[in-house]
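1st attempt posting a full record on here, be nice pls
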Amino acid sequence: MHKKWIKPKNNLAIEIQDLSKTYINSQKKIHALSNINLNIKCGSFYGLLGPNGAGKSTIINILGGTTTKDTGKIKIWGLNIDTHRKQSKLAIGIVPQELNIDAFFTPKDQLELQAGLFNVPKKQRVTDYILELMELTEKANSYSRNLSGGMRRRLLVAKAMVHNPPIIILDEPTAGVDIELRKKLWDNFKKLNKEGITIILTTHYLEEAETLCDEIAIIHKGEIVANDNKKNLLKLIDKKILIIKFEVSPNKTLINALSRFGETKILKKVCQITFKPTKVSIDKILKVTKNHGLTILDLQTKDANLEDVFISLTQN
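the predicted structure (as C-alpha cells):
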C-alpha cells in the first residue's frame, strides 16, 4: 500500500477522553454525548452498540470530522484531531449506511476518483489490490448500477480503503440485507481484520456483534453503560436455560416443583427452565426430576447471549 502506518507506542488505534457533545434544538439542550471514554486497540474488531439516538452516529461524525465536539480529547492512531486534523482524518476510513455510489461509473473508476480526492499519487494507487480483496475484480469495469446489493456494499468498503487507512468504521454495514448476504459480508470484514486493519462496527444486529467483535462498548442516552470484552459482558447476565426432553409429559406436581427454580415452560414432553446459575445448580434441578421418576431422553443448556446483555443494560 502507498503509506506505511507505524503503530502508536501505546498500541491504541483510537483514544477518546471525556468526550461531550450538546445540541440545541428549539432552545432545548440535548446531551448527545456525556463524558465518553473509550480506548480501542490496534488490530481489534470493536463493536459500538446502542439503540437509535444513543450517540453512536455522533461519535462517528466527530471522528470523521463532520461534527465538532464540545469538550474532550481524541487521538486517532496517536494523532490529536485538534492539532493534527488533516493527518488524523487520513488514518480513518468511514463506510456509511447509505449506498452513495455513482450508478454510471465502474467500481474501478470510482476507486480511482476516490484516490484522487485523497491526493494519492497514481503510482502509489492499489486499486486492483483493493478490488481483489473485496471480491470485485470480475465486476471492476461494469457499471455500478448493474452490481448486486452485496457488491455495492463491498464497493463502499473499497472506497473507504483507497488512502490505506489503518482504521475502518463500518456504520450499520448490513442494514437491510438478507441473512445470506449478511454472512457473506461478515467473511469480507473478517478478512479485512486479518489483514491488520482495525475495524469499528456499529450495528443493530446483536448476532453480528457477537460473531465479529472482540470487544464491545454499549452506549445508551449518550453514556457508556458497558465496555469490555465479549466474554466478560456475557457474564454480566446471571441467566441460563435448561431444556429437558422427557419420555412422557411431566405432570403438574413436577411442573410446580421445577417452577421454584425459575420460569418454566412446557411443550408436550419438553420442559424449558430459565434459572440463575449463581443460585441454582443443574444438578439440583435434575435431582428433582429424578425423584419424580421421569426418564430424561435429552438434555441441553443455553447461555445468555449479547441480546440479553443489551436489553438488561439499556432497560435498567
